[in-house]
Amino acid sequence: MAKLRASVRKGRPRSKPLNAGAAKACVTFLNQHLPDGLLSIVQLHSDVGQSGGVWGVKRKATAASLLSLDAQTATLEFDVTLKARDQPEQPGSRASVVLPGGGPIGDVDQLRAALLALCSELPEAGSVLLQLPGASDAFSLPDDMWLNTTPYPHSVRHMFYSDVSSALQSAVADPDTPRRMRALVTPPELNMEMDSYRVGTLLELVREVALDFARAGLRTRLCVQGSMGEGALAGVPRVLSGVKKVRYARPNPRRF
């Protein structure tokens, strides 16, 4: 188990530390690719966006740009343009927003997670924040990601196999995870409700997961559900329909 946990820690993608250079790159990226989202953050989470103004004159934030990011206090500083009714716009106001969870923020992945929590009411911001410079990339898809062909290309099938294997290894290595688990994997080739179901993909997936556990130093055993019927009603599970019976032959010690 120690070998598996070490392998899981080593295989986790790592992002850049949130130093001054990385913070500046993130500020530039957000100003360029998420201007409307920054304005919504100011309107929803800052005192400037929630206040009614001075002497009862209601002001509204019409533009916002991110000035700086303090990783120690997890604070975003904004330059905000305000406009009151029947008055010209007034640029130069300042607003601060504290990220959920507080500081300090150690790397870009933590910053991305905090920004995603802050923008939970802005679904359009998610796709932009996933591309934050310096963050780890564990979600990109292959260029030949076509799911309308059967069988899938090898790279597409391997993507599913590796994702399932890494998820199961992370779950097994976590001491707080229950020992009995269930993995639900239903791309079209593994979905029994679709005519594109391919039993070969299921067998390849099971083989890859079992071999990965064995390489990690764990004893692995595969169990297949037996027949629930008798006589003419006996048969393999529906997901294995059409597969020949696999017989296990005990090794003959005299041959060694």
- Could you spell the SSE succession in H and E letters? HHHHEEEHHHH
Poorly predicted runs: none
Number of H/I helices: 8
CATH level-two architecture of the largest domain = Alpha-Beta Barrel
Oligomer: single chain
Mean pLDDT: 80
CATH topology of the largest domain: the name is: Split barrel-like
Shape: elongated
Q: Can you count the beta strands?
A: 3
**Share of helix among residues?**
25-40%
Gyration radius over CA = 27 Å
User: Which structural class do you get from the secondary structure elements?
Assistant: alpha+beta
Q: How is the main sheet built? A: 3 strands, antiparallel
Order of strands in the sheet with most strands: 1-2-3
Separation, N- and C-terminal Cα atoms = 31 Å
Task: Report on this structure.
With about 260 residues, this protein is α+β, with helices and mostly antiparallel strands. It folds into two domains: about 100 residues, no CATH class; about 110 residues, Split barrel-like, CATH 3.20.180. Helix 1 crosses helix 7. The longest helix has 20 residues.
Concise overview:
By secondary structure, this protein is α+β, with helices and mostly antiparallel strands. The protein has 8 helices and 3 strands.
Main attributes?
256 residues; alpha+beta; Split barrel-like; 3-stranded antiparallel beta sheet; 3 strands; elongated
